[in-house]
Amino acid sequence: MDSTNGFSKVNGNKDQESIIKKRNVWQRRSKMEKILLAVTGILLLLVIILFVISVIQSRSDKEYCTTPACVTIAANVINFMDQSVDPCEDFYQYACGGWIKANPLPENERDWDRYEELTKTNNHILKYVLGMLQ
């Protein structure tokens, strides 16, 4: 198949050659398809622009909680960490090592974690409150 200036020669048999004009992809589209493609392109561009704008605004509008409760909780989280440990080597020890050091396993407990500690504290509070009611 030879190609010259937008035309292709197609060999049917030895005696006969027909020349067929090549049409590119855009020329083969109907008017409605062209309009739909243009609208789709514009909508895609708008979505990308809106996404970029929302990302930029979300980065600049970050509000940090600075109430006493938030600061106290953040301090507790930092105190529960063991920053002397490399988090890539032992993440559990890095994240919880400070709490483990500050809260050793009680003698009468088989396991001990923050939930056990909170449960025990809540039970003491409930016993105290219920004892006052009687």
UniProtKB/TrEMBL annotation:
GO-annotated molecular function: metal ion binding; metalloendopeptidase activity
Peptidase M13 N-terminal domain: residues covered: 87-130
GO cellular component, one term: plasma membrane
Pfam families, sorted: Peptidase_M13_N (PF05649)
Transmembrane segments: 35-56
Cofactor(s) essential for the protein: Zn(2+)
Keywords noted in UniProt: Disulfide bond, Glycoprotein, Hydrolase, Membrane, Metal-binding, Metalloprotease, Protease, Transmembrane, Transmembrane helix, Zinc
Gene Ontology BP term (one): protein processing
KW Plastid (keyword) present: no
Keyword Transmembrane helix: yes
PANTHER family for this protein: FI17812P1-RELATED (PTHR11733:SF167), ZINC METALLOPROTEASE FAMILY M13 NEPRILYSIN-RELATED (PTHR11733)
Entry similarity comment: Belongs to the peptidase M13 family.
Name under which the protein is recorded: Endothelin-converting enzyme 1
Gene from which this protein is expressed: Ece1
